[in-house]
Amino acid sequence: MTKILENTWWSLRWLLLLWMLALTGCGGCFSSSDEKKLTKEELEKKAKEQRESLEWKDLVSLPADSDAKFLFAKPGHWMESRQVFKSNREDLQIVAVNALTRAGKELRIPGTNFTNEFTRRTSLPKGQEKNIDLQCFVPSSSVVQDNFSAVSTRLTFRTELLSYPLMTPILQAPAIKTAEELKDNEFQLVVLGPKPRAYSYLTVLDAIYWSGDELMTDERVRSYRVTMANPVNNKYALPKSLLTMTTVAVILWDDVDPTPCTTIKNERLLTGSTGGAKLWSAGQIAGLD
């Protein structure tokens, strides 16, 4: 008899527990319209905060032009890119990845199976803008751009951000940007000075764009791509390594104080050790007129 009562008591306890769970579940199925509206507002607010949690500026190549946001590269050479990011919600530990693609495919180092991808671990302090500079090698390509093709074969870059240490993608990432590719005969002429736009006339000189008698058309051939670097607090947006300055053939030096220039060693500029580039003064450039 005692055993029967004990079994009945345990059965009642289980039934009571199931009844309580059922009440909780039924209560959760119903919610007022205000609660539903509040949930929708919270979702919209969260989505907006997520969109605004990370800001960035255009991806550019170094040396950077003072006004235009250009991205250019020369196949067969190293280059350095820069993109400014700002985290608005929290401090972020990230890994920045410089991904190069052509015709939607990742580039590989010629003669190897290695993907042409370069990474850098850094941090984004909340509320502060930070430059993310990445160096990479741009492989030569035998692909010829067909302007009538539906698939673009142009070189593209993208700075991808991964959260560290999970290495998961950060959704608020910049889009892919197409690069201007310098031809074999094209190099850079970089103007350094407090008023670089005063040298805008260089872009129309025959020394920059020339046409020979053997050419049967009016097309002019560009020898130099003129980049006008405008200083910010007397600092110029130059590459940190001479390895990424092999496309620079001429540096025009006009009234530049080298003392605070920290983006590249001033001794190298003063001694002319600029990776093969010629260092010209404002007086020397006048001879090109």
Task: Provide a compact summary of the structure.
The chain is an alpha+beta fold and 289 residues long.
Low-confidence stretches: 24-28, 30-36, 262-267, 270-274
Task: Estimate percent helicity.
Answer: 10-25%
Q: What oligomeric assembly is this protein in?
A: single chain
- How much is the radius of gyration in Å? 30 Å
Summarize the helix and strand pattern as letters: HHEEEEEEEEEEEEEEEEEHEH
**What structural class do helix, strand and pairing data support?**
alpha+beta
Terminus-to-terminus distance:
118 Å
* Mean pLDDT across every amino acid position: 75
Number of helices: 4
- Strand percent estimate: 25-35%
Tell how many strands the DSSP assignment holds: 18
The coarse overall form would be elongated
Largest sheet: 6 strands, antiparallel
